[in-house]
Amino acid sequence: MADQLSKVFAALADPTRRDIVARLSVADSTVNELAEPYDVSLQAVSKHLKVLEDSGLVSRTRDAQRRPVHLEDNVFDLMTKWIERYKQQAEERYQRLDAVLEAMNADEEANDSDPSAASAKESEAASPHRRSRKGA
Amino acid sequence: MADQLSKVFAALADPTRRDIVARLSVADSTVNELAEPYDVSLQAVSKHLKVLEDSGLVSRTRDAQRRPVHLEDNVFDLMTKWIERYKQQAEERYQRLDAVLEAMNADEEANDSDPSAASAKESEAASPHRRSRKGA
DNA sequence: ACTTTATTCAACCACGCAGTTGACTAAGGC
DNA sequence: GCCTTAGTCAACTGCGTGGTTGAATAAAGT
Lengths: 136, 136
Description:
The structure is a homodimer of 136-residue chains. The relative contact order of chain A is 0.11. Chain A is mainly alpha-helical. Chain A has 5 helices and 2 strands. In chain A, strand 1 and strand 2 form a beta hairpin. The longest helix of chain A is centred in the middle third of the chain and has 32 residues, at 75-106. In chain A, strands 1-2 form a two-stranded antiparallel sheet. Chain A folds into 2 domains: 4-73, Winged helix-like DNA-binding domain superfamily/Winged helix DNA-binding domain (Arc Repressor Mutant, subunit A), CATH 1.10.10.10; 74-106. At the A-B interface, helix 1, helix 2 and helix 5 of A face helix 1, helix 2 and helix 5 of B. Chain A binds a DNA duplex (30 and 30 nucleotides) through helix 4. Chains A, B: This is Metalloregulator ArsR/SmtB family transcription factor. Chains A, B: Residues 1-90 form the HTH arsR-type domain.
């Protein structure tokens, strides 16, 4: 359907699902247990769990007629890795910018060397349908 | 419309938008620059930027007829904080579980004390529409 | 003033999703 | 064997969203 990262983000975009994840971080639970606090039908919660499941955030085993839901915390790393990557990149850029501004401020009338425009290394998971791209 | 956390996650659930964020981490860009690589209309990209904007992930200023888009990296912290919280909670739980299992293994026929079911402290950002019905 | 460039607004469409209700399957308990 | 418990599947609905095209706005350029 879509890449896992998209599915994980989409799964967590829903407050009910985030709440479910929060509660699963405390203890594995059955569908009924999970559904109890919410004002929606059991089936709705079952659907939420399905979404969480095929995003990889939770797994389900079997215990008699119960299907205990278990949080797969390792998937979080997928997100944090993505987030941290671009957060850092952005932060580094500001540091570079600060340096440039400082330099500009230091010797204003001096030579203006361009600060080697860092080539945007493409993200494997990211770039979707790209096109011809006319040269700069 | 919804809480910011939901909006941020929803915004990043789309590969095109993630790609835009990735590229903005390298440099601020105009809408046209951002739209160029994708195989969709300019208006579609404009819409994506709107989504990113009211999730707080980007901001737009004005430079003549251009509206340069800028990545607000601080919003990432909102997500990482949420993620880390439950990730840690889950990890701690496994450590506790390990400890219990170890203890059980150590003295098998001893007294079986129930391991104080930790009360799920509710997350302020999480718990959506809770209910009364369906008593225990 | 007229045109071009950059971007948004508006109306529309297809699709997916969160929710519903009702029927179904699966596994015990009696 | 039959009822209860636990959960899913199926069909339907309303709404949000990503995409489209066409018109409108904003600020230069000439």
